[in-house]
Write a structure and sequence with these properties.
alpha+beta; Alpha-Beta Plaits; two-stranded antiparallel sheet; 6 strands
Length: about 120
Amino acid sequence: MPERYLQLSGYQIMWVWVLFDLPVGTKAESKRATRFRNDLLDLGFEMVQYSIYLRHAWSREKAESFARQVGECVPEAGHVQILFFTDKQYAQSQVFRGRARAPQPKEKPRQLVLF
């Protein structure tokens, strides 16, 4: 029996962005902000900039699941925003490092990982 592969569309694959501005004026606030960053890493997000993290999701439903998980980690104070982009939208991103254009945005993973 031939293997069947799941075809994923660039309009179904999502990228989840978490942007945040958390207070770090006191030692306790700084500790909470660090804990939040570590929680994002534990959830599989990658740091794009110091308070911007990114994660690939193979469907809208999975992207929303990641967003719920992030919501459970948000500290009491500060501002956290979660944005969703389709793979097609993300592919149109332009990145600059100084005046030079940086390499294209990260490509989606080539294989689907199931847990």
